[in-house]
Amino acid sequence: MSEHGPPADGRPLPPSPDAADCPISPGGTVQPGRRSFLRGMLGAGAAGAAVGVAWDARPARAADTSPAAQAPVAGPADPQGRLPAVPFQGVHQAGILPPPQRQTIALAFDVTAGSRSELADLFQTLTERSRFLTAGGVPVPAGVTGPPSDSGILGPTVVPDGLTVSVGVGASLFDGRFGLVSRKPAHLTTMTPFPNDNLDPAQCGGDLSVQLSAGSADTLLHALRDITRNTRGGMQVRWRIDGFSSPPRPSGTPRNLMGFKDGIANPDTASSTQMNQLVWVQAGTPGEPAWTAGGSYAVIRVIRMFVEFWDRVSITEQENMFGRAKDTGAPLDANSEFATPDYADDPDGAIIPLDAHIRLANPRTSQTADSRILRRAYNYDRGVDAVGNLDMGLIFTCYQQDITRQFETVQTRLINEPLVDYISPFGGGYFFALPGVRDQADYFGRALLA
Amino acid sequence: LSRISRRRAAAVIVLLAGLLAGCSGSSAPSGYATPEANVINVSASACGTGWRHPAAGVQTLEIHNDSSAVVEVQLIDPVDGSVYTQVEGIGPGTTRSMPVNVGSGQYSFTCTGLDYGTRMGPVIDVPGRVSGGTAILPLTSDQLNLITQEASAYVARGLAALVPQTAALLADIRDGNLPAARIVWLTAHLTWERLGSAYGMFGSYDDAIDGLPFGLVGGVNDPGFTGFYRLEYGLWHGQSADELTDPASQLDLDVQNLRTAWPGIELPPTQAVGDLALRTHEILEDAMQNQLSGLDDFGSGTTLATFAAGIDATRAQLGILYPFLVTRYPQTSALYSSLDQLQHLVGAEKTSRGWTPARDLTTAQRDQLDAAAGQTVELLSPIPVIFEQERLIP
To answer: Any idea which of A1-10, A139-148, A397-406, B51-60 has the lowest mean pLDDT?
Structure first.
């Protein structure tokens, strides 16, 4: 915490905790009971102190008393359809490898914290809230100290419902405001537009990304309100997109809103070898700051689908554009969804066209094996656009060790694929999903800020 | 850009190579698992066997290629060769679904492979008095050639009209007469739109002449942003004649070069008709998405004029196909009624003060236009399927 200083753009510093408030002890652990962030961010108003008290005590209590917090592995859903807790702590963030849950909210935030220590406060609050929300439990009553500490939309006891909270940092966080220029992950840039993109700056980028995923929409909205309430002064929503993953229809991989199974061919998340080759940044990677080990680059691309148009296209064309049968999801040269297409046996594209999406995206050669990505896409539906067309599409999300080597290489192969006439990428960003929160003393970004 | 050029190549290769190579007698049963009932075998030696209990009704036939070659399969009426449905590019050992509404009557499968051309399987009788889906009669090669010639001549006439207009645009800009340039810009842009070039008919010329800045790193200031929209942006954003001379000169040159290149860059008749049919549908899809919405307004507020020109282009393509369409598409007159209504509605947005910018449409106006345009493209969307050029009488 030695790099306190004025923001690069010369803005005056907001009230900042002094060194005594620094939550990091020399040993790198979090002091219990810290509330500097809340004082700094929320404490300006008369109610601030009271709110701070209630907030202050709650996370530790909840984490300590909730049985779910101790559960090492998610068990079966309870009869209400609520999912068990997903353990929050670990070497990696818990929300990255699992298959898409039924519901998700992806957001990017602009950080308004005015200093590095306030940024640390923000990360610690985000950690504390995530720890509580993913474990569940009874919120600490506010009594006569203030308004209720919880929105109550999950009832008196917060259910975990499989909630995961994935936090990433964008390139703009490393712009000098927080003295982090030298800490920027080697491959983290602002998302570059590809030909045929139609990126809207207001729906792109951001200093932080937060993706909430769970079994039900109310669980996510509860978490969203809790997190934004507790971080009000430190970050503001830049863009938000809500998504869902469909149940298998009738089996196998969920379908996207073009009617095709999406995300069939992914690296094997059960293989630590593959994950270490393709997803997680490894310790000692040349050029990467040490703190990035265990994290992963996340690419979010919000892609509108022109579904009215798509529904007016023949089945032959649709299948040739994807390279898969629409009914079964099988590659056009095979009989089952998970079969591997044999491009060597189809060199002219007589069966799977040479520019079919699956063929360009993953040519299945040894040369292209290290460009594979872990896809975690969700569907989105947000009503109608300004001219009355249905506004739905895909929240394409992928994780990888190196954006240049992986996502950008894949996307470059896909430039001008036939599908581009039916889709329009307009939002999202590149983020670095932070390493996991390892223990009770750890917090998001601790190594980054250390 | 890609829809037309992409999907055609492979299938046409299959067909033409089949015709050229004649029967080389290749058939290599692979000993794949014994087919079950209603799994139809398709290969050179056994085309369309295995439909054990033919019955009318909506059903999904499983088409299994037990040979070692890629097969394209059609379900046809053996009496006149009209086609009920088809599955392209079935690989060796692969089973694909063929959903079909089977009525009472006679059916046969055809199997087309690279090594043996097209073979017809046994005639299959479906008993009863049940009506099913509709079959489409393929075009003859004479018909294909006729359509292709007419379409090519239409484009040639349009390009001949366009060349002096882009030259005049350049001249006005060189003279520093920007008010005149704005008027001739619109005239030339509408002439271009009436060509019906949606989806890459002119290859790289499309991007040069009518490209958009979306996806370019520098956006509207990107040096790769050229053509009509580049000039529109400058003419309506206070750029000087000097700034616009190079882009206008480039457009003039690109249009001249395109006119010279045409019809050398045209597709062969086997592809050109399918291409024409796709454009008949997609000119308005594109115009709806980009012009009716106002998305492609770079300052002139004339996207509804461009949309109207897209209707003209659609009518021109339809006119070429009409003699062959009207006998194959029962909704032809409904389509024309819908186009008439759409044209009437759009035309009403041209007033004595010029075209209404799309952004100024009231909700009621927009609803009317969107409904008419949406209904029209729904009615246009069967045309590419009806004229898929794989379905040719060899």
So the answer is: A1-10
